[in-house]
Specification:
By secondary structure, the protein is an alpha+beta fold. It is built from 14 helices and 19 strands.
């Protein structure tokens, strides 16, 4: 029996909540909710009403907006209500998640009957994979559990199980829901999680009722084989600061339990996918793609709030009237009205009244700082901003996202996703009693951000290039051109691609006249499109 490592993740749970809020934006950012397994206490220095007596208060509200030194509660509440969040995290996550999972080839014929609703919420497997990719970018890593109803299906055929709705299903488990993970020599031997990682009612309470699910693998302890299994626990856990959530959750009463399904061969049905694995951690831990980008979003959020506050309080000219008796200041106890037939006297010895025009320098510097921070955040995420040649770039506002080192990062991520998909689908096949040897998943070797104009240009360039490509490659190039220029669903694109294969992959020795004409027409159309793209006019002969 080797030494095991047990990780409760208590120290990073609140940081995971912050990354999730930055990704979702909206009310999740404006009014953050606590994690089900987390500490809700937050303390900051504030002011007692409008006085200048500093006090320390425990938050009844959570906010990513930082209060000014000496700012009263009332002024802070107004500024918080007016603050707007510029979400630069979501586009980064979607660029990677959609770019990596958009052109995946899956051989899953053995599981097609199950994969249309793989999570019991109406999601197909491709949608689950894209969602897992997105959350892996956010948290750094997510877990997947392949579970099944606790029903004896040994006497049922596969068709009977499907008809009765008894089938395995996939659960994506967010890291804030992980209660604890135990590992031995890199093998996960125990995994416990709560059914819901977030609840909106936790910000004002120190306790929560949870349902905990625990999986244990077969282990050899002191030379004795200890069989694994699963169990469900329910009860109340404390969310107070300093409490060990793993310890309190492990003491919850067991409400149901059972052995591991024989198909699992003593292993637990859990897989992990990371955007980038933290190799310094014994237990699963990932490196988030968007941690630095989220920090930049918070900087912009606060800086824009400061600029708004400057505009709100000092953006309009005001009349300054110096008074000699008060050293040039207006007596606060004096109420004076100015209007038709009314005037306010002043002492000429203290100076004459004058209009004061506020300077826009501070707001301009804040805005420039926001633009710099935005560009820096994009580069941290492997992206950069470039002027769009299709618009007036001199305005400085027409920008588009271009690839920097996006592709190299995305390729590494794609390798992680491919390993995870293959392992999870084979695990699903074992749970369903299907043949796992036929499962295969292939991710593309070249990943670029979707840009129909560039996709069309590349396809036309290759079709007109002075090199020979096979009929299969030519059909794929025309398919890319169709995808870039026509609004087709996946099903329609597959139908059109079948037509292209009939044209380009047919045997010319046995092809009928119609197919030959269609092939010739497609070739001429591709050549004409390429000439139009180059600005040339097709030559028409009179012969």
């Amino acid at each position: 029996h080797s030494m095991s490592t047990r990780e409760t993740y208590d120290a990073v749970r609140e940081h995971w909540r912050y990354l999730r809020d930055a990704y979702l934006g909206g009310r999740y950012w404006a009014t953050p909710s606590a994690t089900t397994l987390g500490n809700t206490a937050l303390t900051w220095q504030t002011l007692d009403g409008e006085s200048d007596r500093p006090v320390f208060a425990t938050a009844s509200r959570l906010s990513y907006l930082v209060a000014h030194e000496g700012e009263s509660d009332r002024r802070y509440d107004v500024r918080r209500a007016l603050a707007s969040y510029v979400n630069i995290v979501s586009p980064v996550v979607k660029a990677y998640a959609e770019g990596v999972t958009s052109r995946v080839t899956r051989a899953t014929e053995e599981l097609d009957a199950y994969l249309e609703d793989v999570d019991r919420r109406g999601s197909a497997w491709g949608e689950v994979a894209e969602s897992a990719a997105a959350w892996a970018c956010v948290y750094g890593m997510v877990a997947t559990v392949v579970d099944a109803p606790n029903v004896d299906t040994s006497a049922l055929t596969e068709a009977q199980r499907i008809e009765a709705g008894i089938a395995p299903y996939v659960v994506t488990v967010h890291p804030p829901a992980w209660a604890w993970v135990e590992c031995e020599d890199g093998r996960v031997v125990e995994f416990a999680y709560v059914s819901s990682p977030y609840r909106s009612d936790l910000s004002t309470t120190n306790e929560a009722d949870v349902e905990l699910r625990v999986w244990r693998a077969d282990r050899v302890i002191e030379g004795v084989l200890v069989a694994g299994g699963w169990e469900v626990r329910q009860g109340n856990v404390s969310l107070r600061a300093g409490d060990s959530l793993g310890s309190s959750a492990s003491g919850l009463p067991v409400v149901s339990s059972g052995p591991l399904p024989p198909a699992l061969r003593g292993e637990i049905p859990v897989t992990f996918v990371a955007y980038e694995r933290d190799q310094s951690s014994d237990c699963p831990m990932g490196i988030s793609l968007i941690a630095d980008t989220a920090d930049a979003s918070r900087v912009i959020y606060n800086a824009l709030s400061w600029a708004m506050e400057v505009n709100r309080l000092a953006a309009f000219p005001f009349l300054s009237i110096p008074l000699k008796s008060t050293g040039g200041a207006l007596d606060q106890s004096t109420a004076a009205k100015i209007g038709p037939g009314q005037a306010l006297g002043f002492d000429s010895g203290a100076g004459s009244p004058q209009w004061v025009e506020p300077s826009g320098t501070s707001q301009r510097e804040l805005r420039e700082h926001c633009v710099f921070t935005f560009q820096w955040a994009m580069r941290c995420a492997g992206l950069e901003l470039a002027a769009d040649s299709s618009a007036q770039v001199q305005s400085g506002e027409a920008l588009r996202i271009r690839s920097r080192d996006f592709e190299s990062r995305a390729l590494r991520f794609a390798r992680n996703m491919q390993r995870w998909e293959t392992a999870t689908l084979k695990l699903f096949a074992r749970m369903a009693g299907a043949d796992e040897s036929a499962i295969a998943v292939t991710y593309p070797k070249r990943i670029t951000m979707a840009d129909p104009a560039e996709d069309l240009a590349r396809a036309l360039t290759m079709l007109a290039a002075p090199v020979e490509v096979g009929p299969k490659a030519r059909a794929m190039l025309v398919r890319q051109a169709l995808d870039a220029t026509l609004s087709l669903s996946d099903a329609e694109l597959s139908e059109r691609y079948a037509e292209l294969e009939a044209i380009y992959l047919g045997d010319m020795a046995t092809a009928d006249a119609k197919q030959s004409v269609e092939r010739l027409r497609a070739t001429n159309e591709a050549r004409g499109l390429a000439m139009v793209a180059d600005g040339d006019k097709p030559q028409v002969s009179n012969g």
